[in-house]
Specification:
The chain is mainly alpha-helical and 181 residues long. It contains 8 helices and 5 strands. The N terminus is likely disordered.
């Protein structure tokens, strides 16, 4: 927390710095200042909350990079998808379960994950899992090792999908017969 001067009352007012990576106004810490180098515009100092600083892929560098932005979007999307799956609001395609199992068994390197995503069934691109992972996961893996803390939320999502049995389509309904049971 920093202090600023209220121009009307002439006394110090606490000001909470927002985290630059968090979508909600998470309080940032002044000692966690990093440099932001945007593609267009001047370089400037921004602040991060403790969670973002401790778990972003570029935490060893004092500069926000593309991997940090990709990580934040991937992290938010994976958490939302895992919550939707756990509450039953999202039912993955059977192919998404198989893809999650293949990803779970694969080596988590940039090239192996990129190859797995490239070879994914085109029907998977209509689901929610592959579009989430398509670009962001390979960018994060280029800057973080497979067991890095920055991949924790994605690992949880993949583990949840791979552990759950894939739904079996009811073939009797397709043949025009009433379902048995």
């Amino acid at each position: 927390m920093t202090l600023s001067v209220d121009r009307v009352q002439r006394h110090l007012v606490p000001t909470v710095l927002p985290c630059h990576l968090c979508p909600e106004p998470a309080p940032a810490l002044p000692e966690l200042a990093v440099t932001l180098r945007p593609a267009i515009g001047p370089e400037r100092t921004v602040w991060l909350c403790r969670f973002c600083q401790d778990t972003r892929p570029g935490r060893d560098r004092p500069v926000l990079g593309g991997a940090d932005w990709s990580w934040r979007g991937l992290n938010r999307g994976a958490a939302a998808l895992r919550t939707a799956f756990a509450t039953g609001q999202w039912v993955p395609l059977p192919a998404e379960h198989r893809f999650a199992e293949a990803l779970r068994r694969a080596r988590w390197t940039e090239s192996s994950v990129r190859d797995l995503l490239r070879r994914a069934d085109p029907a998977l691109r209509t689901g929610r899992l592959v579009p989430l992972l398509q670009d962001a996961l390979t960018v994060v893996l280029a800057h973080a090792p497979a067991g890095d803390v920055s991949l924790r939320e994605v690992r949880r999502l993949i583990d949840a999908l791979a552990a759950a049995p894939a739904p079996v389509p009811d073939r009797s309904a397709r043949a025009g017969r009433p379902p048995v049971g």
